[in-house]
Structure formats: structure tokens, C-alpha cells
């Protein structure tokens, strides 16, 4: 546990001296902010004619999911690939630390950074809360934030695993992006053409996108939580296997 | 402290080391001497728990490198060949990070101690990216020494340093070698002789010789070529020198000097000097020229073959 924390803490601090992390933070908050202002203005203009439903927290969270799809690979690409490139992997792998502790620590560092971003994004729902009569639906606020936290855990775990396979961070970036796109969106495609039934249900079960939208609507099932946590665990497990395989080469 | 039994490592179809068996006793400084590609780094990576051997095993500080890798790593300090540092950290941050990974109870004190040992206290707050090669090497050493390990494994600790830095690093190693078991690798014969209690000579993945520096020196006397310079032409001197018992391979160099070798265990140099003077020459120089590692291996392996 202690090793995990040591690794995670260094990684978390590294983000604050890395330009890429600042760009990601800025881009996320700026994009969500612009979208937020546009939607609010639009709804306010509509309100001149009739009383539209107040926008909910999903206008913030939905955008964050899209941005995290791109940002996660950028946050995880150097985690293990750079250690390999700089030769510091030899150092880490000869300290009294288990390989899984290294992988989990790396992931945790990036997850804590994502949590920081998610935390800062709370200002938008707070603003929304003061603007709308009666305030926003707090159940939806909670489920929306649970959804984005679960999703980022999965994205970052997959990114960490892929970073362990490469010593070039850009290769790690694109490989991660490809896999995230596949999990997010591609595997839901068959459901559009397949007749409803077991096979279609399996694809539906696997796609992250569908689950995410359901969670944004306030429906979080045990299956959702199990699915996201299993994917996270799987990513971390595969990352550990990748690190172990490096030793045998 | 280190006991290697039949270590063998294959990289794919390529065998890097074959059946290495050796030991380093408590408090001993053991040198691994061999040219590039001999298998020094591979052996050290196995002993430090970085990679498993294909065959064979080893015990380090009393623990099995395969079964009890974590216990071994707890007790070993390792300086890899390319010193692994994070350029965007300060010296202190880096060493503190390593001390935390070593579970040091009082990490900051340990960092201070290690920095003092390598004489870098004044650089604690400097960024690693701003350090010279010699300073980086010392930080690498500090990292290996942090947790006061029972066993130190140093892979070519003086490679790529300028002469002044080499002297510094060697004196640090000599200092810590007084109380710790050290296995260090080098491709420089004189370095191994200066620093080590015992030298293992390794070539093409096999140990070709093992001895104390003194014995090694004795075995290699005469393995050296000697250059003889006199005033004027040495042509007429050559037959005179060649007649001396024990002298062999006499030949005239392009620059007019005379080179020869002599059989091990009989140092003929005084006799050669007298003969030259007696023949009426002014003796200007009588100088041994070092052999390359390859020639040393040849010498040592021929000798072992003869013994058999
Ligand atoms: N990762 C690797 N993959 C394949 N071959 C390797 C690898 N590392 C070393 N070798 C080969 O193994 C042999 C021993 O290398 P090494 O242990 O680095 O020798 P040294 O440290 O004595 O120079 C060399 O022939 C080298 O080319
Ligand atoms: Mg080497």
C-alpha cells in the first residue's frame, strides 16, 4: 500500500509541472464552460417564449465524458512508457515493490488528477443550482458524477496498461485512443443492425456509452458498477502482466 | 553474500551468459572484468532481481533471487550502467522518492547521509537536469547507498567520466567498500586491480579466470610487451637481446625502438638493461606497454590450457 502511495504521489505531482496536464485541464474546463454558457443562454432565450425545462447536470458531465476520451490517453501515455525510455524502469523494478503496486500506483496518480479536474468542474453545477428556480436535481447530480468517476477509472486503467507495452509515449497515446473509441462506441454498432435478442444484448452490455447515458439519466445499477470496476481491474491486471513480461525479455 | 550457481541467460536464441558460478563473501569487493558484451550487465540484472535467469539460481544476502526476490531487493543497492535519474526532479526529491520506496523510517536523514557520503550536500536543491555527468554518477551512487544495503552492485561505475571524476568515484567506492560487500563491473584492468579484493574475468558469457589482483598481476607479468629505446639505431642490439634467456618475440619497431616479451615469472628487464649498456648503447627507456583485454584473455586462457 505504501509503495502504491509513493508512486501515485510522485505521478500526481509530476502532472503539475507538465505542460500537457495543464493543457488538458484548461481544455476540459474551457470547453465545458463554453458549452455551459451557450446552453444556458439558449435556454434563457427560449424562456422568453415559454417555460423550458431547466438544463440539468448532464450538460456538464456529458461533455466531460467526450473530453476524457481524448484526455485519458494523454494523461496515461507516459506513465510506464517513459520509465522504459529513460531507463528508470530498471530502478523501479529493483526496489522492493511488487509489479502490481507500480501499475496501481501509476494509475492512481492519474486517477487523482482526473478527480481533481472533476472536482473543479463542480463549479458549473453549483452555478446552475443558483440560477434555476428550485435548484438542480441532486440525485441526478450524484449519479452523473458517479458515472464520470467510474468512466475515468476505466479509461485511465486501460491507458496505464497500454503505456506498459510501449517505450514510445505517442504510440501509447494512439493505441489507447483506438481502444477507448472501440469500447466507448464501436462495440455498440452491432446493436443497430442486429435483431433484438441475446447477441444484441451482449453488445449492449459491453458498450460503455450506453451505460454512461443511462447513468446520466439517474439509473445506476449494480451491473454498471461491477462492469466498470471489472474493466478497471482488468486494465490494471493486464498492465501488471505487461510489466512482468518485460522482465522476461 | 552473493552465491551464483550455474547462471545462464538466453535472449531469444542468443546466449548472453553461460553457467556462471561464483561467490562474493561478506565484506569483499569483487570485480567483474570483461569487455563489452561479455555479460556483466546481464549477470547484475539477474542478481538484482530485474530479470530472472534462464537456468541456474543465486542467493544474495541469504535469500533466493527467484523465490524471495523482494527480500533480496530490500538488501541490495544497485547502480545500473545507465544511471537512472529523473531529470525534472531535484536531487533531494529524487533521493526522497527512492528512500520512500525503500521504506526508510527516517527518509530525510538517510538522504542527507547519502549525500554527505558522495559529497553532494550543497546540490540537494538543484535540478538533476543541471548536473554534470560526474555528479549524476554520484547521485546514482547515493541512490544505491541510501538504505545502507548489505550488498552493493555497481555496473561500470566510472564509465564515461573524465579522469578527475573517475578518481573521485573510485575513492568513494573504496571508502564504502571497507564495510560492505560490493560487486562491481569494469572493462579496465587497472580499475579492477585498484578497487577489488578479488577479480573475476569474464569473456563471452563465461568466467575465464578468477584471482586476487596480486596473483593476476604475477600471472600477467611478461604478458606485457616491453619497449626498449636506446640512442641511435637499435638494429645491432636485437640479436644480443634475443640471446638473453627468457626473452622472446624481439622485433624492431618502425620508430627504431625495440619491442620484446618475456616468459612469465622471470623478469628479465634488469638483465636486458645491463646487456644494452654493455653493448655500448645509451639506454633511454625501458617501458611496459599494457595489453588489451583480448590479449589478457588469450594469455590467461592459454595458461589455463597449459596447466591442464
Ligand atoms: N535485452 C537484450 N536483448 C538481446 N540481447 C541482449 C540484451 N541485452 C544484452 N544482450 C546481449 O547479451 C550479451 C551480453 O550483454 P551485456 O550483459 O550487456 O554485456 P556487458 O554488460 O558485459 O557489456 C551481448 O552480446 C548483448 O548483445
Ligand atoms: Mg554492460
Give a written overview of the molecule.
The complex is a heterodimer of chains A (249) and B (308). Chain A is built from 13 helices and no strands. Chain A is mainly α and 249 residues long. Chain A has one domain (2-44, 52-247). In chain A, α8 (138-165) packs antiparallel against α12. Chain A is globular, with a radius of gyration of 20 Å. In chain A, 41% of the residues are buried. The mean pLDDT of chain A is 88. Chain B has 308 residues and is of the alpha/beta class. Chain B has 2 domains: 2-218, 3-Layer(aba) Sandwich (Rossmann fold); 222-289, Alpha-Beta Plaits (2-Layer Sandwich). Helices cover 36% and strands 28% of the residues of chain B. Chain B has 11 helices and 14 strands. Chain B has helices at 40-47, 69-75, 91-101, 107-117, 133-145, 163-177, 189-195, 213-220, 237-243, 269-278, 293-307; strands spanning 2-11, 14-24, 29-33, 55-60, 63-64, 76-79, 151-155, 181-186, 198-203, 206-211, 225-230, 247-252, 258-262, 283-289. In chain B, the strands form 3 sheets. Chain B has a 6-stranded mixed sheet, with helices on both faces. In chain B, α4 (107-117) packs across α5. The radius of gyration of chain B is 23 Å and the shape is elongated. The two termini of chain B are 31 Å apart. Chain A binds chain B through residues 2-3, 6-7, 10, 14, 17, 86-98, 247-249, and chain B through 11, 45, 48-52, 70-71, 73-74, 76, 78, 80, 82, 84-86, 88, 97-98, 100-103, 143. Magnesium ion is lined by residues 40-41, 81, 155 of chain B.
